């Protein structure tokens, strides 16, 4: 009995630790894996799980922490945008979903291996590189890609050493999209507006000593083409102690075009016009848009190493509306500045040479989410559509991809009669390669630790910046589990060795029967046994 | 000893796998909702009849979902449309992603003109988010910002398609 008990215990422990055992029970279920644990990955998984009661979905994520750009992109002063994490967490807790962090697809496991193990593979790996400006001086110190700058204040492990020098007065941001406005807002916000957010402490410290007073946001095209959304522009306009410094000339003649514009563009332009005339003259800081200008060269300072300015070419606009093109003229303009942040776009990278890739558009070529010439391979999110659009856009296009997968399951294009091993096979592979995954429950330990560290500072969390430390925390109590188990095992063994053996109730019943048997000839209900040794002998007989 | 430990571990394993359909979210952040419905609910929970402020009444509202199906529900005044969708578990994919904090536009609903007018003015912030909604119309509202009132009895709300139409999409293209 004891041996059996220990064996059962062992099995249960192994299953609990493996946490993927539910997969074993349903052999013919459609198995889908998603590469990337950002919004696209989670929304695709959510839709698949909901629409098919038999589908099993595994999410593989490169980092030990989930949520992609919701954690690493969305500005710290936009906590409400991050509420989507609650829904993602529910998806991760779904009994037919499992999350495997710390798995770099393309390096730790190939897409082909995933395709062997699953009926369908969805690429949702986002857009993780930045578009270079391609101009001389781009690599001087003081020049940053917005992606890295954002990563620095949002805690991307790879960007923790960025240490931007914020001692200069003027910063130039190239690009006029939402990311550009996020960066401008972070540079200009009073510290009070940031210190209770999940911004990294090192960024907060650097911003506390920042000398930046003036931020120029430069765009290739005109005021009618700025790419940000109105919410972001309004926030910039509402910053305390900061005034807009727009040039009236830039907006000349625009008022007349207003009536023909679609409502979103019209409202955005009206707000821009309002900003020209508004603003508090006593404000110490300012922001401004510079239109129709393209970067030509980053100008070095006297030491030849640090950026001291940027040369811009003035553009003229051809065409009309959203399709206007910027054509450079030979007119140039130099702007003095010590900080240059290029925010001209993210781009996807090829994670595995076996995956079709369109290097020009930096996306996976696809038809409604079906990857070209690769049956069973799908894509969603930024890697499918390009790095534009808000989370809601990503959500809709992920739902679309899920619907296409469901269609292909129905139509037989995906052959579900073939049994696929799913996570079981991949876990095996990863183990032989020495890759240990971070399960969602383990991410929750990291999460708890981050929240704990944020608390004394009134922050929702203090993000961990070091992958090694994340892993240590994630796996910490797994070691504890094993230790506890070992201790218990030892107790079992010692108990057995000490010769203490228990009498179970069923064994007492044997004693009971014997007592009743012995009483019967004397007309007694029982003849009680008086000797413990004898009781034991009968009990264990 | 070993068997009770087994039981504990089995129980733990079971607890770790509590099932929830992914669309059945536990959103209860309506504290932020304009309508203050959570407050109402709490008040009700404490004491129903000694409070003179008990203003809730039942209204019936009708949704037309993305498949064109009509769904009628009874809800209490003081709730937002988003509260109703969450509380009644109405299955509109992706509805209310930001949980009523004016940060997503996924709670977009289209009203009938007279109801739209009856509701009165709309905040700039709501308009800003609406501008990002797919299939924006002149009678569009964000469901998390519309509070139920008695005079909205019988109102009809259309939950619009989310399929990207080319025009809106090209506008979205630029937003990053
Ligand atoms: C700076 C910034 C701010 C933004 N702010 C907002 C905002 O305020 N509101 C809003 O609605 N939208 C915002 N967005 C847009 C929003 O973040 C995107 O729409 C959305 O995150 C795209 O989702 P995705 O899943 O395609 O990509 P991502 O979010 O990038 O997710 C991709 C995931 O894949 C993982 N991955 C990559 N390579 C691999 C690999 N080889 N193996 C395994 N996993 C891999 C990554 O680690 C990541 O977790 C912002 C975007 C940026 C860049
Ligand atoms: S739920 Fe996000 S704006 Fe209404």
TrEMBL record, chain A:
One cellular component term from this protein's GO annotations in UniProt: mitochondrion
Major subcellular site: mitochondrion
Keyword Mitochondrion assigned: yes
Reaction(s) this enzyme catalyzes, per UniProt: 2 reduced [adrenodoxin] + NADP(+) + H(+) = 2 oxidized [adrenodoxin] + NADPH
Keyword Mitochondrion carried by entry: yes
Binding positions (NADP(+)): 176-179, 220-221, 232, 389
MF GO annotations: oxidoreductase activity
Residue span(s) of domain FAD/NAD(P)-binding: 31-187
Leader peptide range in chain numbering: 1-18
Record-listed FAD binding positions: 40, 61, 69, 105, 382, 389-391
Names of required cofactors: FAD
Subcellular location: Mitochondrion
Keywords for this protein: Electron transport, FAD, Flavoprotein, Mitochondrion, NADP, Oxidoreductase, Signal, Transit peptide, Transport
Recorded superkingdom: Eukaryota
SUPFAM superfamilies noted in UniProt: Nucleotide-binding domain
Protein known as: NADPH:adrenodoxin oxidoreductase, mitochondrial
Organism phylogeny: Eukaryota, Metazoa, Chordata, Craniata, Vertebrata
TrEMBL record, chain B:
Gene Ontology CC: mitochondrial matrix
UniProt GO BP: P450-containing electron transport chain
Gene3D superfamilies: 3.10.20.30
Keywords linked to the UniProt accession: 2Fe-2S, Electron transport, Iron, Iron-sulfur, Metal-binding, Mitochondrion, Transport
Compartment(s) of residence: Mitochondrion matrix
GO molecular function: 2 iron, 2 sulfur cluster binding; electron transfer activity; metal ion binding
Cofactor dependence: [2Fe-2S] cluster
Domain of life: Eukaryota
Domain 2Fe-2S ferredoxin-type stretches: 59-163
Main location class: mitochondrion
InterPro entries, per database record: 2Fe-2S_ferredoxin-like_sf, 2Fe-2S_ferredoxin-type, Adrenodoxin-like, Adrenodoxin_Fe-S_BS, Beta-grasp_dom_sf
Similarity field: Belongs to the adrenodoxin/putidaredoxin family.
Descriptive protein name: Adrenodoxin, mitochondrial
């Amino acid at each position: 009995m004891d041996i059996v008990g220990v064996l059962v215990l062992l099995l249960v422990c192994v299953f609990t630790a493996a946490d993927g055992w539910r997969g074993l029970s349903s052999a013919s279920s459609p198995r889908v894996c998603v590469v990337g644990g950002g919004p696209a990955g989670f929304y695709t998984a959510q839709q698949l799980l909901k629409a098919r009661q038999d589908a099993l979905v595994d999410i593989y994520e490169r980092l030990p922490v989930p949520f992609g750009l919701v954690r690493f992109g969305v500005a710290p002063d936009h906590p409400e945008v991050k509420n989507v994490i609650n829904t993602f967490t529910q998806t991760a807790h779904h009994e037919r979903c499992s999350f495997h962090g710390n798995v770099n697809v393309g390096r730790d496991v190939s897409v082909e291996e995933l395709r062997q193990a699953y009926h369908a593979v969805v690429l949702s790996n986002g857009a993780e590189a930045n578009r270079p400006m391609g101009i001389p001086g781009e690599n001087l110190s003081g020049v940053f890609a917005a992606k890295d700058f954002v990563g620095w204040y949002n805690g991307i492990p790879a960007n923790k050493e960025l240490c931007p020098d914020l001692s200069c007065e003027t910063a130039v941001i190239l690009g006029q999209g939402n990311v550009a406005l996020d960066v401008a807002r972070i540079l200009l916000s009073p510290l009070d507006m940031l210190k209770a957010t999940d911004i990294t402490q090192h960024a907060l410290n650097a911003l506390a000593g920042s000398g930046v007073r003036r931020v120029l946001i430069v765009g290739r095209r005109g005021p009618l083409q700025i790419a940000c959304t109105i919410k972001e522009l309004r926030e910039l306009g509402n910053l305390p102690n900061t005034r807009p410094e727009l040039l009236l000339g830039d907006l000349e003649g625009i008022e007349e075009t207003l009536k023909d514009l679609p409502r979103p563009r019209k409202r955005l332009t009206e707000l821009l016009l309002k900003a020209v005339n508004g603003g508090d003259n006593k404000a110490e800081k300012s922001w401004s848009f510079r239109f129709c200008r393209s970067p030509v060269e980053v100008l070095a300072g006297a030491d030849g190493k640090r950026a001291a300015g940027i040369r811009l070419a003035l553009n003229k606009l051809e065409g009309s509306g959203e399709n206007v093109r910027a054509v450079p003229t030979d007119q140039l303009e130099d702007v003095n500045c010590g900080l240059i942040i290029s925010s001209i776009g993210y781009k996807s990278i090829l994670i595995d040479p076996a995956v079709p890739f369109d290097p020009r558009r930096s996306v996976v070529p696809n038809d409604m989410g079906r990857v070209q010439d690769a049956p069973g391979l799908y894509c969603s999110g930024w890697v499918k559509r390009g790095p534009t659009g808000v989370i809601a856009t990503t959500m809709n296009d992920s739902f679309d991809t899920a619907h296409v997968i469901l269609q292909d399951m129905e139509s037989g294009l995906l052959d579900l009669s073939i049994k696929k091993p799913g996570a079981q096979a991949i876990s095996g592979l990863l183990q032989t390669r020495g890759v240990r995954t971070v399960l969602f429950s383990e991410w929750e330990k990291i999460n708890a630790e981050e929240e704990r560290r944020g608390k004394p500072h009134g922050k929702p969390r203090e993000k961990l910046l070091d992958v090694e430390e994340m892993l240590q925390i994630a796996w910490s109590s797994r070691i504890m589990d094993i230790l506890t188990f070992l201790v218990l095992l030892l107790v079992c063994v010692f108990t057995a060795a000490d010769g203490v053996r228990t009498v179970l109730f069923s064994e007492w019943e044997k004693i009971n029967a014997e007592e009743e048997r012995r009483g019967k000839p004397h007309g007694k209900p029982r003849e009680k046994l008086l000797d413990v040794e004898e009781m034991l002998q009968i009990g264990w007989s | 000893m070993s068997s009770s430990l087994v039981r504990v571990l089995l129980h733990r394993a079971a607890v770790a796998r509590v099932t929830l359909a992914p669309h059945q979210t536990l959103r209860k952040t309506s504290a932020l909702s304009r309508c203050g419905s959570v407050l109402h609910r709490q008040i009700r929970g404490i004491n129903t009849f000694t409070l003179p402020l008990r203003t809730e009444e039942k209204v019936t509202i009708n949704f037309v979902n993305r498949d064109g199906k009509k769904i009628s529900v009874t809800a209490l005044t003081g709730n937002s449309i988003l509260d109703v969708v969450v509380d009644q578990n109405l299955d509109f994919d992706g509805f209310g992603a930001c949980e009523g904090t004016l940060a997503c536009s996924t709670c977009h609903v289209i009203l009938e003109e007279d109801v739209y007018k009856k509701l009165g003015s709309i905040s700039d912030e709501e308009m800003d988010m609406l501008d990002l909604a797919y299939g924006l119309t002149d009678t569009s509202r964000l469901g998390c910002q519309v509070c139920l009132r008695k005079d909205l009895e019988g109102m009809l709300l259309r939950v619009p398609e989310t399929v990207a139409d080319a025009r809106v999409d090209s506008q979205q293209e630029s937003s990053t």
